[in-house]
Specification:
heterodimer; A: about 110 residues; mainly beta; about 0% helix; B: about 120 residues; seven-stranded mixed sheet; about 55% strand; globular
Chain lengths: ~110, ~120
């Protein structure tokens, strides 16, 4: 079955840039999406179609994709950005969707 | 505004059954794919199933295929998940999510707050 691989954790100081990666064999041909999940809350979409930002998501959140890797970048990370982040995409068939294992972002 | 409210979770014995419901409001329910996604305690997100707007297209994760059935009632703006032959590993918070059509797959733009299913003797 198809898998997306993320680092378990990333840690930055407030104001620094945080980068969270997601690797998958189908990413050169399939879009990546990113979700933020704060403790005890439902996930929230922060990036769709590799690099688009939904309304209401701060500009410091951006996304990119190159080859088999997608990247979520948080420029000037803030304490309130501490959360688990999940990438999401689909296998080559487009019918089965999958989440990455998640990355815990610590900002302190 | 979009609202998704799950219900039906609870404690069930291994081998038992449970039916989850999701009440949708704030959008034209019959225009959208809908999905169930779960999260075991302390673990990551796992997609379970999705259903097309008309109900004609359905997909399941291998882990639940043959045991779970997704359905919808567009007249009632409701999504369902019938879960049979439950196992301890099905213990999770189950989220209902709205699916929007991207260029090459659906993605989930709104989520409910989830309902907890615990499978234990």
């Amino acid at each position: 079955s198809y898998e997306l691989t993320q680092p378990p954790s990333v840690s930055v100081s407030p104001g620094q840039t945080a980068r969270i990666t997601c690797s998958g064999d189908a990413l050169p041909k399939k879009y990546a999406y990113w979700y933020q999940q704060k403790s005890g809350q439902a996930p929230v979409l922060v990036i769709y179609e590799d690099s688009k930002r939904p309304s209401g998501i701060p500009e410091r959140f951006s996304g990119s994709s190159s080859g088999t890797m997608a990247t979520l970048t948080i420029s000037g990370a803030q304490v309130e950005d501490e959360a688990d982040y999940y990438c999401y995409s689909t296998d080559s068939s487009g019918n089965h969707v999958v989440f990455g294992g998640g990355t815990k972002l610590t900002v302190l | 505004q979009v609202q998704l409210v799950e219900s039906g979770g609870g404690l069930v014995k291994p081998g038992g059954s449970l039916r989850l419901s999701c009440a949708a409001s704030g959008f034209t329910f019959s225009d959208y794919y809908m999905s169930w996604i779960r999260q075991a305690p302390g673990k990551g997100l796992e997609w379970v199933s999705y259903i097309s707007s008309s109900g004609s297209t359905i997909y399941y994760a291998d882990s639940v295929k043959g045991r779970f059935t997704i359905s919808r009632d567009n007249a009632k703006n409701s999504l369902y998940l019938q879960m049979n032959s439950l196992r301890a590993e099905d213990t999770a918070v189950y989220y209902c999510a709205r699916g929007s059509s991207g260029p090459d797959s659906i993605y989930f733009d709104y989520w409910g707050q989830g309902t907890l299913v615990t499978v234990s003797s």
